[in-house]
Amino acid sequence: MGFGIGAMGVLGLLLHELFGAKRYSQFLVL
Question: Cβ(24)–Cβ(15) under 8 Å?
Fold first, then answer.
């Protein structure tokens, strides 16, 4: 569980850097 959450957090940061907060926020909503 902890490892999965950590991995998602890292991927989230990468997506935030690559695509920006707005696009990532829309992805989370969908």
Answer: yes
**Token couple for 19:** 């695509």
Whether 9 and 21 have beta carbons less than 8 Å apart is answered as no
- Name every residue whose Cβ is closer than 8 Å to that of residue 2 and which is 6 or more positions away in sequence: none
**pLDDT in the model for residue 5:** 73
Kindly report whether the global pTM for this prediction surpasses the value 0.85: no
Letter for the amino acid at 2?
G
Burial annotation 4-13 (CB, 10 A radius, 16+ → b, else e) = eeeeeeeeee
